Amino acid sequence: MDRKVYGLITNELLTVLPQEWKQVIFYGELTEGGFSFDYYVNIEGDLFTQCFKLEEVDRGDILNTFRKIYCIILPLWKSLDKGKQWSNFTFILNRSGVFKAEFDYTNLQENAYAYYQKWRERYLK
Known about the structure:
By secondary structure, the protein is an alpha+beta fold. It is 35% helix and 27% strand. It has helices at residues 3-14, 59-78, 112-123, and strands at residues 23-31, 34-42, 48-50, 88-94, 99-104. This is DUF600 family protein. Pfam families: YezG-like (PF04634).
């Protein structure tokens, strides 16, 4: 993905972040038939709060943001050859604007939940 796409994703995430956020870690899974997104926000210390547990953010707004992000990345994902389509990606954004994106190609059809648990252990420690 190019910088423009990361900018679009950032703009969408900014609409569903609490004012005091320091860092956001976004997780996205994409398959031919759908998607699963989640994000975690660091507000203070080393603790991250899952998006749906943020009191000041509306659940409907989060779901709408997820749909918008899906519409941003789906055409790019579909343009990749089948063997080069990633199964999930992680987007880490700091309040200063510094970001990092990582892509993974693990087949998640067999045990997506176990993979997600390992992802959480890695990124949210």
